[in-house]
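During the reporting period the student researcher (J.K.) took over the structure-prediction task from the postdoctoral fellow and processed the backlog of single-chain submissions. One of the processed entries is reproduced below for the supervisory committee.
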Amino acid sequence: MKVDFKKYPDGLVPAIVQDYKTQKVLMLGFMNEEALKKTEESGKVSFYSRSKKRLWTKGEESGNQLLLRQILVDCDYDTLLIKAEPTGPVCHTGADTCWSEKNHPEDFLNYLEHIIEIRRAGSDDKSYVKQLFEKGINKIAQKVGEEATEMIIEAKDVNRQLFLNESADLLFHFLILLQAKDCRLEDVINILKERHQPK
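J.K. obtained the following structure tokens:
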């Protein structure tokens, strides 16, 4: 990989770090040749600290590391895009990103899946989600079956809004069932992607 470190007087190129799953931009750091080499060899993202005047590996103090997944260089060979998997909050403030954004995909279904996870682990006994999880897998599976039947019934009629409401109920309960089986929506999507590949 060709990187033009000599373009900058201090030999440091900007390194933008992006979560390889959510695509969220996590932070910006600087790398010299040594930091890039260490990152490639160790599989953990390292930078050159301009304030400490030395190499530092993300997470060496906090424990929140960035596990390397891919390195890309831009068209001018003077900026890096580091795709990584964070093991915890990235910012020193404790935020997910250095821009205080939540690190989740900009996808409502993934967000909803996260909310279900929070409700499941929460202490609110009035939560419908928590109550359903406490009733166990049989009740959750039964609920999915009921919602599927209701959706099929509405599909045979002409009321579009009722059909969409029942479809939403089915999808919501399907997400609950996935979590009850220790699975994620991403697991299902990955299977669909594999099936989509040309044979």
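The committee noted the following: The helical segments are 33-42, 108-121, 128-135, 137-155, 160-180, 185-196.
J.K. will present the remaining backlog at the next meeting.
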